[in-house]
Amino acid sequence: MPFRRDSRPNPDQIEVIIGPRATFSGQLRCDGSIRLDGTVEGGLIETPANVLITESARVMVDIKARTVSVAGAYKGTITADRVELLEGGRLWGTINVRTFLLDEGAHFQGQLVMQDDQPADPLVAARPPAGEQIPVMTNAPTESLGETVTSNE
């Protein structure tokens, strides 16, 4: 399913809520979605589901999740399939993601690294398998064209 501005991922059952008057520091791992309304400082949040950072949240922690929605303030590194920086949301840090949504009125300062199945550098040719014949063309007009070289790697 393609992601669009009006198309949001299906919500999971929220299993953990850090309330607006709560402060948390440390590692949090959960199988369900996590909602952050309060302050989270230092550590790691990890879930195969979603992380919701609401308008009142102040979060300074690394996050690994399927989807991260930011409506409050976030600083750190996010690794996710999808990140949504919603209107009023503020994000400082690095985002490693497959899809990214930036709403109007949001603030982002940092690095956005789009992840996919393609090689890291599309300008570098892939190595041929070991033993495959590689045609070599020379620029000199007196030499034979079409000479082959065998890869030993």
What does this structure look like?
By secondary structure, the protein is mainly beta. It has a domain of 101 residues. Helices cover 0% and strands 54% of the residues. It contains no helices and 11 strands. Strands 1, 2, 3, 4, 5, 6, 7, 8 and 9 form a 9-stranded parallel sheet that branches. Strands 10-11 form a two-stranded antiparallel sheet. It is elongated, with a radius of gyration of 23 Å.
Structure, briefly:
The chain has 153 residues and is mostly beta strands. It has strands at 14-18, 23-29, 33-36, 39-46, 50-53, 58-70, 73-85, 90-102, 107-114, 133-136, 147-150.
List its traits.
single chain, 153 residues, mainly beta, 9-stranded parallel β-sheet, two-stranded antiparallel sheet, 54% strand
